[in-house]
Amino acid sequence: MYRGDATASTDWFERMGRTAELTGESHVSRALMALYADDVQAAREHVAVATAAAGAGSDAERAFTLYAEGEVLARSDPVAATARLREAAAEAGRIGAGQVSKVARLALLARLVRDGQTQEARSLGGALLRDLHRTGSWAQIWTMLRVLAELLADEGSSADAAFLLGAAERDPSAPPLMGEDVARHAELRQRLAEEVGPAVLQQVQAVAATTPRTQVVRRAMRLLP
Which pTM does this prediction carry? Predict the structure, then answer.
C-alpha cells in the first residue's frame, strides 16, 4: 500500500475479506484504496459495510473504521471529518491501538492545517512527529513532513517548506502521492517556485535530497513545539 501498488493492495484486501473476522478491516482498507483512486462513492459503500461489521468487532476495529470514515467525510464535509478523526484518535489512544492512533492523528493534522487551525496543528504535530520517530514509522513521517510543508508555506516559511518537500520527494522510503495529494502538492511546488524563485527552489531541494533523513526529522522537530 505504501509503495503505491494500488492493484496488488486492493487484491490483497479483497482476499482478506473472505475471512469473516477480517471483514471490517478489509472494507476499511478497501475504502481507503477507493479514496486514493478518487472513487468516493465506492469508499462510502465500503465504510458503510465496515461500520456495520465494527459493531461485532474489536475496539481497535471500531477506531480504524472511524478513521476511514473521517477520511471519506473530508471529501464532502471537512467539519464533520475533523470531528470524526478526533474521535478516532481519541478511541485509538484510549485502547492503545498504536497504528490506528498514528494514521488518525496524521489525518487530523492534515485537516487542521488545511482548515487554518495553525496553533492546534503545531501542538499535535510536535507530539506526533516524536511518536513516529520513536517507532521508526517512516512512511507516516514523510507524509507528515509533506503536511508540515503545507503549514510552513502558509506561514511564509517558504525555504523550510521547500526543504521538507524536497526531502520527502527524494527519499525511497517515502510513499508516493495518491488521490487529491497529487494535485495539491503540484500546486504547492509551483507556489514555492513563485515565492523563492525556481533556481533557489531547485538548490534547496537538491540539498534536502542529500541530507540524511534523521537530520531532516531533527530539523522538522525544531520547527514544531
Answer: 0.89
